[in-house]
Amino acid sequence: MERPFFLIFVKYFYSLLTLLAFFSPVSYSIWLFLPAIILMWISYAFFKVGVYKGLKFNMPIRIQSRSTSINHRKIFLLFTIVMIAFIPLYIKYYTGANALTLLLSFRSMAGSDSNYAQYQSYFAENNLAQFSMLKAPYILGYGILKYIFIFFCMYFIAYTKKARKKEYFLLFLIFFLYFLQGVSRGTSFENFELIIVTLFSLTLRYKLIYNRSFFNKRNLLYVSVLGVLGITYFVVSKSMRYAEGTDALMLRDITATLKFDRDHWIMSIVPYIGSVCMNLAGYFTFGLYYTSELFWKVLMSLDGFPISFLPWASSLIYPNMTCSNVIESVNVDTGACWQPDFSTLIFSLGIPLTYWIIYKMGFFAGRFYNYIINTRDLSYTIGLFYISYEMLSFPIGNFITSSSANQISIFITLFVIYTGWFKKLLIIK
Question: Which range marks the domain in which residue 399 is found?
């Protein structure tokens, strides 16, 4: 049986995380990382078993006639106009920045210190962390636009055999607007999401339109080259957030307990590679460190051991404490780093129930994939994307649980699937 593209996608991502843990010059040996790495690959195994189980189930197919399909091209044009109007307002509300000023500033486009610092300062001064009725339209509007953004990215990249030049231009424009609102905050997370959405859509396109795998030598070479360029941009933009931003490879401790190790073997052999890995480690290795520390200092302790197996035991052993509170209580500094959903689930539900949830995610992913192949249904495609995205998020962060826009987008996805909208979205001939 041919391996589904999204399963290969997750496997490659986990492989890169494993390599990064090995090469990152941090004050934490690869042996201490092992619990998180092993737990991550076991989660992949459960997900894979669930996927192949789901592939054996055929969902009832409800086909909507072509004549009743909506005109997506006109809606796409309308959506682009709305996004052009909304994103500058969104940027202004959350950062106080002017979108036009951002466009004219090179340091802004690189994600400079001024943007990041101004965003943090403006956010705190205006108390934007608190919910308000004034904030609600921006939260809801951005969540809806995010769903439509993913919808049209997949529609034109994965489902359309040959788009018009005007449509490619509009697609580039909405990509740029999405990128711009990340630039306004001086962060790179939006860029990461753009890469994931694009790669997911491209890999699906190869299956739906060309009926072959995306993962051949030529495409992997292209992705590698683009990856190097993307990492270069990321490292430069990250360095420019600091006052000493002239040094693109300036290395700092990730947190007070996960430090840069100047004596690490890779810094002696290939220091440039080590420097790049160190810049990435704060985003993609810290989650493994977090999970390993949870394993060594909490789950393997006499008090915390029942948490490993018993659902909600943590609420009895550590009342009124979150996973983050417990981790910090055992002298692990989390700083401003991402905290992985995988650790939070294990802490709350135990390892067996966590793996059962991952198995069920795989099961639904397999069923969705079957339905997509048979019907070209875009609503299920977005559902499959979010399942895959959560699998990428599990070991390193909380991309969905910490993002109201993603949560709103998922709610819309489930609503659309339940109500049966957008059935039989055919490939454009």
Answer: 69-243+374-419
